[in-house]
Amino acid sequence: MGDPYRVKPGQKVKLSDIDPRDTDALGSEDEARGRLYLDATAIDTLQDRLYAEGKRSLLVILQGMDTSGKDGTVRGVFNTTGPLGVQVTAFRRPSEEEMAHDFLWRAHLAAPRRGTIGIFNRSHYEDVLVVKVRKLVPASDIEKRYDQINAFEKMLTENGVTILKFMLHISKAEQRERLQERLDDPKKHWKFNPGDLDDRKSWGDFMDAYETMLHRCSTEWAPWRIVPADRKWARNAVIADVVRKTLEDMNPTYPKVSWDPKSIKIV
Ligand code: ADP
């Protein structure tokens, strides 16, 4: 599989031109599910090596509209990964303490420790998405944030953090189905937040904000990928493939010990 999902630095993106149901690069659903299983298993092994090496880390950033499958991605891709080495952080509305700091403060606090994989379920990008759409800070402040984010991410990468960013691209029609499911199934009522419907009403404004974010913040050091996400299996297959290849390229190694294991007798 190539990398048709990656946004090149400076590339202009029109989300309405990208089909959220596209599976062209994936082959059949059965094949993709088979690869997903193998990729998830490989990610677990690679994660063990990353942890043992203890020098670098991987940060996986997930962004997308409500119901786009951020939680489902964590379950589907990292389900076999040892819990020791993976830390998921959900970014909700900022607390009073978080609001008292710059917008990147909480993201930096949650950046992964050496040897681990950090997953951001939502992220500092909310500060150029929902914050922009709801006009929670002046536009001139938002404008500065794209460069601030790029500089922040560059600093992380220069300190051993490899960054992957996935925008889960679902259609408005698919979101309707998934929201309706939440209303129809009592076990899913807890997931339904009537406030989500406000964001749905601003769908067009959100797509504009996503396009600007993808255009301004897909960098050589921290590229965005747009993942067609109307089909859950396709979404997981694409992300698992990229995560696995990235970890393989990082090629973490088990440290060599300075003593001879053969010289030790356990009595
Ligand atoms: P999720 O929808 O991710 O499962 P929640 O239902 O707790 O989790 O929703 C989190 C909410 O927090 C979202 O509506 C999101 O827009 C909002 N949020 C996240 N970051 C910010 C931010 N920096 N400023 C304002 N709202 C934010």
What does this entry look like structurally?
The protein has helices at 29-53, 70-77, 96-99, 105-109, 130-133, 139-158, 172-184, 196-201, 203-217, 232-250; strands at residues 57-64, 86-90, 117-121, 161-169, 224-228. The protein has 267 residues and is α/β, with parallel strands linked by helices. The chain has a 5-stranded parallel beta sheet with strand order 2-3-1-4-5, sandwiched between helices. Helix 1 runs parallel beside helix 10 and helix 2 packs across helix 10 (232-250). It is globular and about 70 Å long. The mean pLDDT is 96. The structure holds adenosine-5'-diphosphate (ADP). Keywords: ATP synthesis, Kinase, Transferase. This is Polyphosphate kinase 2 family protein.
Brief descriptors of the model:
alpha/beta, Rossmann fold, 12% strand, globular
Count of helical stretches: 10
CA(first)-CA(last) distance: 52 Å
Total discrete domains: 1
Measured by DSSP, the beta-strand proportion falls in 5-15%
**H-E string:** HEHEHHEHHEHHHEH
Strand count: 5
What are the distinct ligands in this entry?
Answer: adenosine-5'-diphosphate
What structural class should be given to the helix and strand makeup? alpha/beta
What is the residue-mean pLDDT, rounded to a whole number? Answer: 96
Protein name: Polyphosphate kinase 2 family protein
Region (Disordered): 1-27
Keywords: ATP synthesis, Kinase, Transferase
GO molecular function, one term: kinase activity
